[in-house]
Amino acid sequence: NAGVTQTPKFRVLKTGQSMTLLCAQDMNHEYMYWYRQDPGMGLRLIHYSVGEGTTAKGEVPDGYNVSRLKKQNFLLGLESAAPSQTSVYFCASSTGGPGYTFGSGTRLTVV
Amino acid sequence: KNEVEQSPQNLTAQEGEFITINCSYSVGISALHWLQQHPGGGIVSLFMLSSGKKKHGRLIATINIQEKHSSLHITASHPRDSAVYICAVNSGGSNYKLTFGKGTLLTVNP
Hints:
The complex is a heterodimer. Chain A is mainly β.
C-alpha cells in the first residue's frame, strides 16, 4: 500500500546506545518530517527536509541527526540515547500542499 | 502560550450525540488540518481546510479565518469515533511544517 512506512515499530534502548529510525515513502513527496509525541504535549518537529540531500532543524533537534540521501527515505539517528528521548516518533511526508501523510509511529523507550 | 489551542481537552459522549471540538490559533495560517489518532495508533488526516467548510460522512469541519477558529463536528457519534482529535496549522513558508494542538480525547460510550 502506498504511504509512509516507519521501521522499527518498537524499540528499547539502553542509555548511551545508538540507533537509526527509517522512514520510507513511495508517493514521490518532496517534503519529509520527523516529529516526536510526548504525553500532554502536541507533536513537536525534530528535523525536516525539503528535498533530496537537504535537512533542517526543527523545534527540538538536540540529540538527533538526520539524513536524506534518497528522496524516498528520511533517516533519524540517535547517537547516544538518553531517557529524555523516550517518546513516540512520527514521520510524515507532504507534497507541499494538501497531501500530508503520517507513518504509524515508532515507540522508543530508553532505559 | 501555545500557538494552537484546542478545547475541550477531554470529552465523553453517549452514542448518537452531536460532538463539537474547537481549535483556536494565534498566527496567520495557509491551512489547518484535523487529524485522528486511535489509542496506540498512527495518525490519520481527516481534513485540510483553508476556508469554509468540508464534510466527509458524519464528520464536518469548518474554519473562520477572520476569527482564527476552526471546529470539528461529529454527527450521530459512535464508539468507534473514540480517539484523539488533533488540530494542526500550517503557518505558511516554504517548508510546510505543522504546529500542533495538544489534542482532544473523545470517548463515546455505547
